[in-house]
Specification:
Elements lengths: L2 E3 L9 H7 L8 E3 L7 H5 L6 H13 L5 H11 L6 E5 L2 E5 L9 H16 L8 E6 L3 H10 L5 E8 L5 H8 L5 E6 L3 H13 L1 H6 L1 E4 L5 H4 L4 H14 L20 E6 L4 H11 L6 E6 L4 H8 L23 H7 L4 H7 E5 L2 H15 L5 H13 L5 E6 L7 H8 L7 H7 L6 E3 L3 H9 L4
Parallel strand pairs: 4-12, 5-6, 5-8, 6-7, 7-13, 9-10, 9-12, 10-11
Antiparallel strand pairs: 1-2, 3-4
Helix pairs in contact: 3-4, 3-11, 4-5, 5-6, 6-7, 12-14, 16-17
């Protein structure tokens, strides 16, 4: 399949080029030329399929023309070596727990898939040059990408993160690894980190000297695989609601013909996650509507209200992975809907919450439902709590384990969240990072020292 740029001025690219380059020559984001729908029979029996089988069927629609079946199945199975359960919070609200992977965050899915797909392409290339992966992170992306690529031959990873603006546990997950992983501590905010990465891609001198790519959600190999777990959520909920309810419980079966009763809420920062959900809907996934839940960084929420997209400097919040003032994947959403504000609003509504509202939601959910939310999941839960209509079932994405934000969660909920062993192991390591200004000239000078 060929991939085109959202800016429309770059030549069509193969999957390999789109993955290895990350960003098109005209600074646009790559989009597949077409989105293949899945047959109705797939959805009729989806509740009987495993996560890996569902993911393979979806991956085949995107990548099957470019990757042989055996390799693609291996990539999918290696990626999804953990469960993604839909856990009941209330009678009509479920949490899709995306924190059961190696770094306890949703980005494990996309990052692990991309690492394996990139390795597939690199293995067929000349070994005389490294592929250099640049990734900006506001928290979880860095750890997921770093651990997904750790030790992969022929690939070096540079993680750029804003100084003092990621949680200590998040920071130790990518600054203690060594090997082919380099952490760069930028004196700025996430948007500055993202700008450095984009500028590096567009610099002709760097591009001539190094093979550069990105593992942010701007890369098609990162955001497209995130669609897997929306299909898996539907399969689990279809299975749940096709069973007879227990006495006293509501029974709202998911309609196979239209799925009008299912709503998905996505805590949103750079908008790669909800973008992959919209692709899933185009493939036939019967989710009737989506809610994009923002923290105080409400650029997309304001766009829904006014039709004007006005990027702003990002604001620091307790839901730090969503602290994005100019979400990259907005361009893909616009492209998907032909630039129509009306069409976008037909599928997506918005919500925005302050730190105090997020904290209040975390306390309330724990007290009433006995369910511990992290700050990002709290935005998703509250948006469903406030926005679900009669007859609807909703699920939100619990994007990271609460222990990754232990100090914030403990202070708000007066709790002592247990730190899983996987996180404890990271915390025992020694931090190694390179301080960096937000000036591109300094970052470019550093990268030039890395040329092989």
């Amino acid at each position: 399949m060929r991939y085109y740029s959202t800016n429309g001025k770059a030549p069509l690219a193969t999957l390999e080029k789109a993955v290895v380059k990350g960003l098109a020559e005209d600074r646009g984001l790559y989009m597949p030329e077409r989105i293949k729908p899945l047959p109705q029979e797939f959805f009729n029996g989806i509740q009987d399929l495993s996560l890996q089988e569902i993911a393979y069927r979806v991956a085949d629609c995107f990548f099957g023309e470019d990757v042989d079946a055996e390799s693609l199945r291996r990539i999918v199975c290696d990626t999804l070596s953990f469960d993604i359960p839909a856990v009941k919070v209330t009678d009509n609200i479920y949490s899709l727990e995306l924190f059961h992977g190696p770094t306890l965050a949703f980005k494990d899915v996309g990052a692990r898939f991309m690492a394996r797909l990139l390795q597939y392409f690199v293995s067929r290339r000349s070994r005389d040059r490294y592929v250099n992966v640049l990734v900006a992170t506001s928290g979880d992306t860095g750890s997921a990408v770093a651990n997904g690529f750790l030790g992969v031959e022929g690939i070096r990873v540079y993680v750029l993160y804003p100084k003092g603006k990621v949680s200590p546990i998040q920071e130790c997950q990518f600054t203690t690894l060594g090997q082919n992983i380099t952490a760069i501590e930028v004196d700025g905010v996430f948007d500055d980190c993202q700008a450095l990465v984009k500028s590096a891609f567009m610099d002709e001198e760097l591009s001539a000297a190094m093979l550069l790519t990105s593992a942010n959600s701007i890369n098609v190999a990162r955001f497209l695989p995130q669609s897997f777990y929306y299909f898996w959520a539907y399969a689990q909920l279809k299975r749940t609601f096709s069973c007879s309810p227990r006495k006293g419980e509501a029974h709202m079966p998911l309609r196979e013909d239209s799925g009008e009763s299912l709503v998905c809420c996505v805590p949103s920062g750079n908008f790669g996650n909800i973008c992959s959900a919209l692709f899933a809907k185009r493939m036939g996934l019967p989710i009737s509507r989506f809610i994009a839940a923002n923290n105080a960084n409400d650029v997309f929420y304001n766009y829904l209200q006014t039709g004007q997209y006005l990027p702003q400097p990002s604001k620091q919040t307790i839901a730090n992975a969503m602290d994005v003032g100019d979400p990259s994947n907005f361009a893909r959403i616009l492209e998907l809907y032909g630039g129509s504000h009306e069409a976008i609003c037909g599928d997506i509504s918005g919500a925005t919450y302050s730190d105090s509202q997020i904290a209040e939601t975390m306390r309330q959910c724990l007290s009433v439902n006995g369910y511990q939310l992290d700050p990002h999941g709290a935005c998703g839960y509250r948006a469903l709590q406030e926005g679900l209509r009669k007859g609807e079932v909703g699920f939100f994405l619990e994007t990271a384990h609460p222990a990754k934000f232990k100090q914030v969660v403990d202070d708000i909920c007066h709790s002592d969240v247990a730190i899983p062993e996987r996180l404890q192991a990271f915390m025992k390591g020694t931090k190694h990072s390179i301080p960096m200004s937000k000036e591109f000239s300094d970052f470019k000078a550093f990268l030039k020292t890395q040329v092989q």
